[in-house]
Amino acid sequence: MITRHFGIPVTSPGAILRRERDLGTALGQETAEALRSGGLVSDKIIIELIEDWLRLHGGHGFVFDGFPRTLLQAESLMSMSTKLRTALDLVIWLEVSEETVRDRITGRLQCGECGFTTSSSSAQFANRPVCPYCDGRLERRNDDDLGVLQTRLQEFRTKTEPLGAFYKKVSVLHRIDGNRDRDAVFSEISRLIEDKTPK
Ligand SMILES: [Zn+2]
After folding, report:
1. Fewest 10 Å CB contacts: which of 48, 94, 99, 131?
2. CA gap 68, 170 in Å, rounded
3. Sign of the dihedral defined by the CA atoms of residues 144, 90, 31, 158, in that order
4. Dist. CA 183 → ligand 1 center (Å)
5. Which residues surround ligand 1, an ion (CB under 5 A)?
6. Considering the entire predicted model, what is its pTM?
7. Which of 10, 22, 25 is nearest to 66 (CA)?
8. Distance from chain centroid for Cα 41
9. pLDDT tens digits along 124-151
10. How far is Cα 122 from Cα 116, in angstroms, rounded to an integer?
């Protein structure tokens, strides 16, 4: 939604890894199992992938979704942006309850072609689940099992939670309530981005 609305490229470690897997690269094969089982890919690999992506696509602004998730990732992003002579304008922290996470994980569908995500409750399908943008097949993601939820929550508490204090120091952090519907969350994010965009 951000790319369509603002023309800013958005990526996530998951999207980059799925692409590597689909291209059949060595790295893609190495990380496919972690992706499938919801396991964690090492900081080192994630940081290298993000750095490559930034070199290729980060020239005119960028948004990362789900990165950084650890202090090491956050520190690396700081040094990457110093190298690229660009400053982080905004860090958005979506606060969601465990209940919301659980509901979304069980109902999430993703297009196998373009990566568009929706939920089975908000999408109305006539006969078969197809993507409204490219007609690709909408599928339940493999790593969306409730089985991996506990691991993720644990990872979040131990590794991601400390990033709040890290980014608070550089005063770019905005916490917003992510338990609302997609449109409400998007319009609040849009306002934050608009405030940062040079007029
Ligand atoms: Zn699609």
Report:
1. 99
2. 15
3. negative
4. 20
5. 111, 113-114, 116, 131, 133-134, 136
6. 0.76
7. 10
8. 14
9. 554 567 888 888 888 876 655 677 777 7
10. 13
